[in-house]
Design goal:
Oligomer: single chain
Number of domains: 1
Largest sheet: none
Protein name: HPt (Histidine-containing phosphotransfer) domain-containing protein
Shape: elongated
Order of helices and strands: HHHHH
Organism: Kaistia dalseonensis
Number of helices: 5
Number of strands: 0
Structural class: mainly alpha
Length: 110
């Protein structure tokens, strides 16, 4: 399974190859490093903020699996309890890693 839904990416970019490459580069340089912080043991409020940012960016490039994993980590509990389960963090990390690998492959052949 691809980490990027091509139909979503094309719809969001007008299938403009140059725009797609620019957006994927921005994801790699700006969003992916913040995504790595999500699983680094930061405080729950900051994790939710970053997960929200990653989710929005992931939706923009058609990375639907990552967006779904980020949405789970965005949950805002009514109290200060941290709802992130280790398996949710691991699933987010795996989805981010798969996406970054796919983007790197795409950019290498662009």
């Amino acid at each position: 399974m691809n980490a990027i839904d091509q139909a979503s990416l094309d719809r969001n970019t007008g299938a403009d190859a140059a725009l797609i490459n620019d957006i994927l580069r921005i994801f790699i340089t700006e969003v992916a490093p913040e995504g790595r912080l999500v699983t680094s043991g930061i405080d729950p409020a900051e994790r939710r903020r970053l997960a929200h940012r990653v989710r929005g960016a992931a939706l923009g490039i058609g990375a639907l699996a990552l967006a779904g994993k980020a949405m789970v980590l965005e949950r805002d509990p009514a109290d200060a309890e941290d709802l992130a389960e280790p398996e949710d963090l691991a699933a987010f990390d795996a989805a981010l890693t798969a996406l970054v690998s796919e983007i790197e492959r795409r950019l290498a052949t662009a």
